[in-house]
Amino acid sequence: EEKKAWWKEAVIYQIYPRSFADSNGDGIGDLNGITAHLDYLETLGIDVIWLSPVYKSPNDDNGYDISDYRDIMDDFGTMEDFDRLLAEAHRHHIKIVMDLVVNHTSDEHAWFIESRSSKDNPYRDYYIWKDPKNGKEPNNWGACFGGSAWEFDERTGMYYLHCFSKKQPDLNWENPKVRDEVFDMMNWWCEKGIDGFRMDVISMISKDQSFPDGTVEDGLYGNFSPYVCNGPRVHEFLQEMNSRVLSHYDLLTVGEAAGVTIEEAQKYANNEGTELGMVFQFEHVDLVRGPIGKWTDQKPKLADFRHIMNKWQYELEGKAWNSLFLDNHDQPRAVSRFANDSEKYRVVSAKMLATCLHMLKGTPYIYQGEELGMTNVYFDKLEDYRDIESINAFHQYVDNGLVKAEDMMRYLKEISRDNARTPMQWDDSKNAGFTDGTPWINVNPNYKEINAKAALADPDSVFHYYQELIRLRHTLPIIVYGKFQGLLEDSETIYAYKRILDGQVLTVACNFTDQEQDCVLCEDPTAEELISNYKGHKAGKLQPYEARVILHK
Ligand code: TEU
Ligand code: CA
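# calcium ion complex -> structure
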């Protein structure tokens, strides 16, 4: 019997504040913009907002580079605005989960300014400093956003580690003072009344202290993952965090766990609750990789996707809790990637994807705009991109002659994080109603058709379908707690499964293709249809992108 918890029964909505709603015309989304749209979120029916970082930041990586954990980014407003958002959200029965970015800080954080100032500064060991090796970098690791993971600092003649950009130096979690600072800061936010943490790359906080070279896969730099992800002391550190912070409150916690395996996830998200509530794993969004990692235009195959999703369903059963997501601020739009964003099939296939994800076991996450079926933006020019990862990758691979510019532009269209970061499409007025000013990144030109106002007015919209999926989850315990059993696990066209609870059985069948497929799983005249993206069905068939959910009597 599964232990019950509010966060297992909840649906989470991720907000990327910079792109959600601009309240003061500077072209940048902000906290007051979010507060102004709480009615919309309450109508959708979600329980929790996960707020991407809103802390003080010089925005080298849109807030994932924090210079003060106890203050708000100027672009987004003030602490008063935050307190009002929190209170208003609670009044709307919506909880707020904060992004916690503590693998690294900004290089403009006071700790790093102190740390780099001299070798004997009390903050020196807050970060990871190494002497040059034969006059060069301490090892061959490449940073996620290009270049070496080591930056030379003239002042003291040593290198510091940055797994992301050079403005994101990694904290040294080996130092107990760093852990004290982080846990104090977390308790400070908890005392404010926040409802949980999404923990950025938390699987990377414990590094192999021998810092060995990594395997060179992209022709340029060594891969640090085996020595950084799920490192030797990560579970110890999280257990300490749990006993010193998390266990004192009733929180939703989700760890972003790059490179996590099933065995590791069973520890991070164990049912005894000694570490975190759940983790984000990335196998299903990283399943197509080319010679230069994620940069490819190959589409994922249904069979591979289903294999990974089902594996996580089976292997965490009774041991740990799953998170469910297809989209976030680092991923292209789900309907463009896993389904079909053409005019003909966008709506029906977005609903199919939603059905497939939301009927699985775990806590579902909706990324802003996913509930509208927002699509990739397909920028034609590099100048349209804003994302540090996309721009740096273009230069790293194209300027080095490893990839042709036109190929890289095609990969960006498919995979760039900016596909998720174009402004939320509120209505068909200028800039999609996102801002009265000039948006910091271009609006997707399809906003005239795809927007919240149109969706709210249309009973058959993707929005209303999500609303119904959420309502079902809130009403039927089988959707939350039912055991998962895969069906048709050899199919190349259909994703189907059952959920089972206390003698009740629910069947889900989703056609991932634009062709009609044979399928008899839903031919049970005594069953009740819970939801479908088609009004009429064809006996023994699933129509293009058809999804059906039935509850057997
Ligand atoms: O992302 C971690 C991470 O692994 C990403 O760099 C991921 O590899 C990439 O975005 C997709 O290929 C987290 C945040 O979600 C991301 O926005 C930050 O840029 C990053 O950490 C650094 O804080
Ligand atoms: Ca603004």
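# post-check
The two ends are 22 Å apart (CA to CA).
The mean pLDDT is 97.
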